[in-house]
């Protein structure tokens, strides 16, 4: 029981990290960035490349090295997100939504198969594993590395929350999300704010990618596809565009999946998650913490 | 029979000669009959002629198989064009309906020993149900939600087919009976079915329902204000698209005599979308051409396998940025009648 | 029996904390022209959206010939005989002008999917009817431009006509026009005034939102004035124009004599121009 809860929370914190980027981008330009999951994949591969270039990493140094790589990767994927927005999305901001969505699909496709062309179709083995010391917490087996990863995820999320709620930057972001035209009239540089939102969201996805690589040990070019779907589900559960809601949604989805897997068997995990998504869209499309808005006519 | 690209029969053109009160105000005058034929019927007839004559050029089993696959792909594109092109709804898991059709006919024909044709009613029922189940909750919401839910649906159908015993698990179903004897006659049957499907899609697109689809695509609020029940209209597009996909799936099952989950990945959905976008969303001629290009190009570019899909992705972005109407767009200008 | 064509009672609409409409009550009789005026943000468009089903009012009711239509979806309201235009033109831009107006005939023509697939006589007949009606209403609205090209290619004033033709093709009993004369030049405004009168002659009742006082005073039987969501006047144009509350709403407390004079002059000028 508590094992299921712990597993759920652990996976859920990954979902939450990825879902945050989804949710922030949606909040600010109302675009479902299909390529978001692929930025997570990109993060995993960037981390892989950096670690590979650094040569072998001794077990004792694994954690500090990994944190360093994490920061580096976040910078790279963050920039990738900015470039993506700049090249593919910005010019279409006023275009029909369908064009923008199709562009996002194209970007996702290009990233996936670009990575396959560059790194090959076979899974790569991550060159660093954290030590597997196991603890017993309230009857659940918890490894030290899991604790570390969850701690990193929590720190990142707290940092993001502080940034969005306390800083000037964050205030500007919320203003743009609420009403871009009014924000522009108030002297906010909307383009710059959107760029920064993409940077933050993509950086978080990249971080999650490295962490996933370190945890699961294997990465491949399609790894972002499913997590993108899961992250969207998490965002919908919590309320897309709403940051605390999205974190909650991620954890909740992790828990639901953990129990669903226990009851139905692992092979039905994704079907179960999808069922949850459909259920939420039917019953409460605004999510748990999202508010109902009347679209202007 | 007007062939792919299905032009309006002349009867329609003449019978629609509306009285012209205030005639002089009418703007552009009617265009010459010749130019009209060039645009409509001839393009379609030429396409059909090419399809019919191709086996006389090369009837090797490989060439026939490639051409049959291309024809089936055209049908898929015509179906997705109803959803994406006419109605403006992005479906990223369209291949799921293809899978539902192929598996339903495959399972029924192999387990119950039915001939493939006898499975058609069941295929229709199952694809319509699948369309309703996915459409009902999502078509009420913003269109982006539909996009991602369909993406998930495509995955889920594939995973389900892999997990179930009745669908043969990861290795799928073998020994599905064919529809005809021999590949040549099957090719011609496929071309016939696909031509009818393409004309059907084009006719629906020009009808009251088809106009309603485009009203929804252009402006949902204005459509509602005109009395168009946008939810039902979107549902109709989605279900009709599902039927086209499901029937194409039956052809697919008959063609390969086997189906397995590997044929129904997101990659396939993306390729059909590519055909629709490249050819020109909402333009049936463009979509047919787009489908032929997308399905034949990989055969020609086998060596570039890895970069092919990268190029497709980049092309999607470029088309949207530079030429969102596609290669051969739908005419916003209609023929003066 | 005696229920008015449209009656709006105690309408209230709040978006979160913002109260857009706060108690609006008015009625429209058959073939009557009622104007709704008020400063920007007064809640005029929101009131239209409540009547036509686009917004669900927080409280109050909307009745059509006595039948409660509050909360119906817009297409259902439209089916009962209400048509509208939008403040910022909502044409189907990529579709032909003719197809735009055919949208108005959507509920009138009878054809099903099989008719469309087989091109049955019924299909041909219904398509022909739809086209004829579209031409008829375009003529009625006085469209001069190309009917076969995309609607977005027309000049602004012409697009306004198309939008009205589209609404008329719906053959409504009640037509709601949201600032139909906005952005039009002097001649076009006069033509719009004429068009509105001709629509009424067809037996269609009209609710008009308009900022051009001359036009409003000229054409309406009654005027309803909104200010910050509240109804501050409802009566014949002459009465409403003299209402001190209305003058104040339009000019603000600090308006000096010159401004008031100017406003009066512009109202009078518009009257002459329109007549
Ligand atoms: N969907 C919505 N969500 C939130 N607020 C809204 C919405 N629609 C309108 N409002 C607000 O309701 C108020 C009334 O707006 P409305 O558009 O009805 O005014 P109006 O009288 O038509 O003004 P104008 O003359 O400028 O057209 C405004 O404060 C507006 O911001
Ligand atoms: Mg308004």
From TrEMBL, chain A:
Record localization: Cell membrane
Domain of life: Bacteria
InterPro entries: ABC_transp_permease, BCAA_transport_permease
Transmembrane segments: 6-27, 39-59, 65-84, 96-115, 144-164, 198-216, 222-240, 247-265, 271-290
Topology within the bilayer: Multi-pass membrane protein
Transcription recorded as keyword: no
Assigned keywords, A-Z: Amino-acid transport, Cell inner membrane, Cell membrane, Membrane, Transmembrane, Transmembrane helix, Transport
Keyword Transferase among UniProt keywords: no
Similarity field: Belongs to the binding-protein-dependent transport system permease family. LivHM subfamily.
PANTHER family tied to this protein: BRANCHED-CHAIN AMINO ACID TRANSPORT SYSTEM PERMEASE PROTEIN LIVH, HIGH-AFFINITY BRANCHED-CHAIN AMINO ACID TRANSPORT SYSTEM PERMEASE PROTEIN LIVH
Name assigned to this protein: Branched-chain amino acid ABC transporter permease
Organism: Microtetraspora malaysiensis
Automatic annotation (TrEMBL), chain C:
Domain ABC transporter: 6-253
GO molecular function: ATP binding
Gene3D superfamilies cross-referenced by the UniProt entry: P-loop containing nucleotide triphosphate hydrolases (3.40.50.300)
Listed PROSITE patterns: ABC_TRANSPORTER_2 (PS50893)
Keyword Disulfide bond appears in the UniProt entry: no
SMART domains referenced in this protein's UniProt entry, alphabetically: AAA
Keywords: ATP-binding, Nucleotide-binding, Transport
Stored CDD domains: ABC_Mj1267_LivG_branched (cd03219)
Entries under InterPro entries matching the protein: AAA+_ATPase (IPR003593), ABC_AA/LPS_Transport (IPR051120), ABC_transporter-like_ATP-bd (IPR003439), BCA_ABC_TP_C (IPR032823), P-loop_NTPase (IPR027417)
Official protein name in the record: ABC transporter ATP-binding protein
Organism: Microtetraspora malaysiensis
